[in-house]
Write a structure and sequence with these properties.
The protein is of the alpha/beta class. The protein is built from 10 helices and 15 strands. Strands 1-11-10-4-9-8-7 form a 7-stranded mixed beta sheet, with helices on both faces. A 4-stranded antiparallel beta sheet has the order 3-2-5-6. The protein has a 4-stranded antiparallel beta sheet with strand order 13-14-12-15. The chain is elongated and about 80 Å long.
């Protein structure tokens, strides 16, 4: 990688309030020969769904660790809700919730006991040895969050008896007890089956809408980032693309037109006459590259048996960005 601007940068220079501000962030580990994070900058507006993407070793985990105050930066500045993560780490921790990739629950305690000790550590409520002795405000808040996430009697079972999906929901409840303004999700669906993954994302969408929380996601499941308001892609510690998923995709991959006909040879000849490049992939695939499907189809006289367009995925753009960065 050479010193250069991101391959794609479609973000606006908007002066509106940012809940996360990262400026020229650098992290070099002791004995490291290169920077794990190398001059990273980005902003996240309040209430946004932000996705931080990149391959293993790209600097995602290091960046998130700095944002959540568990790791000190080498240089640069990071602020969460206007608080510096180094100078005001305690205040930052009060503003963020974290759902770790690896479960951080005490498996021998009940779900409620895990939540209770978290609330006590954050000085939200005084310590009480039993749930029924806790203040009514605590019990009301816990019930409200449990209802939103669909946890009922399971909340009072030992964590080791809960399914992976229920444990994830429990971690979200615990992370929301102190009313964080920013919720960090580190591979939140890791290890979940398809149904549990879909349910969990619906819960997260509902939570975001109900509580106006800013979501910061890291994931290898690129489809989970398709709904993000903004994505930032890291590679070798540097920002190589950022912007809305739609704009990032539009810069690198184009919509495709898929055609087929009973007389496929005739269709091939027609496309060559029109100087329309295509590839034969079962059906004929045309990269639109800024042209419209309509202008191509109206010039074709052969009766078509297949006619559809396909939009590129964020994963396709992601792979092209990383490939370009390795050239």
């Amino acid at each position: 990688m050479t010193d250069q601007a991101p391959l794609v940068d479609t973000t606006r220079a908007d002066a509106s309030a940012h809940v996360i501000e990262v400026r020229d962030l650098v992290k070099r580990y002791r004995k490291g020969t290169v920077n794990a994070v190398d001059g990273v900058s980005f902003d996240v507006e309040a209430g946004q769904f932000f996705a931080l993407l990149g391959p293993n070793g790209a600097g995602k985990s290091t960046t998130i660790s700095i944002l959540t105050t568990t790791l000190a930066p080498t240089s640069g500045t990071v602020s969460i809700c206007g608080r510096d993560v180094v100078d005001d780490a305690s205040a930052v921790r009060g503003q963020v919730g974290i759902i770790f990739q690896n479960p951080s629950l005490d498996m021998n305690l009940t779900g409620e006991e895990n939540v209770r000790f978290h609330a006590i550590l954050y000085h939200l409520y005084p310590y009480r040895p039993l749930y029924r002795m806790m203040p009514s405000a605590y019990r009301h808040q816990l019930k409200e969050l449990a209802d939103v996430l669909g946890l009922g009697p399971e909340l009072f079972k030992p964590v080791k008896r809960l399914s992976g999906g229920m444990r994830r929901k429990l971690e979200i409840i615990r992370g929301l007890m102190h009313h964080p303004r920013v919720l960090f999700l580190d591979e939140p669906t890791s290890g979940l089956d398809t149904a549990s993954r879909r349910s969990l994302w619906q819960y997260i969408r509902d939570l975001r809408r109900r509580h106006d929380i800013t979501i910061c996601l890291t994931t290898h499941q690129l489809n989970e980032a398709e709904e993000a308001d903004q994505v930032c892609i890291l590679d070798h510690g540097r920002v190589v693309a950022k912007g809305t998923p739609r704009d990032v995709k539009a810069q690198l991959v184009h919509e495709r037109l898929i055609l087929d006909a009973v007389d496929r040879d005739g269709l091939r000849r027609r496309l060559r006459e029109l100087n329309v490049p295509f590839r034969d992939d079962g059906a004929l695939v045309i990269e639109l590259n800024g042209r419209t499907a309509h202008e191509i189809v109206r010039s074709i006289e052969e009766p078509l048996t297949v006619l559809r367009t396909e939009s590129p995925s964020l994963e396709e753009a992601y792979l092209r960005i990383l490939a370009a960065g390795d050239e």
